[in-house]
Fold:
Amino acid sequence: MDLAAFRLSLGAATLPDGLARPVAALWHCGRGEWDAAHALVQAAEGEPDHDWVHAHLHRVEGDLSNAGYWYRRAGREAARGSLDAEWAEIAAALLAKV
Structure:
């Protein structure tokens, strides 16, 4: 699935089959379902892709201190651009791994 198809899937009633956990979390985030997204990444903390999405979620929440912690755990620089641009960057990177 590419980024355009992933964005289109946000309008579907259910999560697309076969998504890796951090991508599924981004799907929920893209639909405004922060709690569902957070539960997915929190269950697998310590894995860099999960921690990267976790950082983004805390940035969405407005908790920049906590986001900074997760960026460091993920080995990433803290994002400074728009939330949508970061969401798309993470989604494209993770979808390319499939």
Summary: The chain has a mean pLDDT of 96. Helices lie at 3-9, 21-30, 34-42, 48-61, 64-74, 83-95.
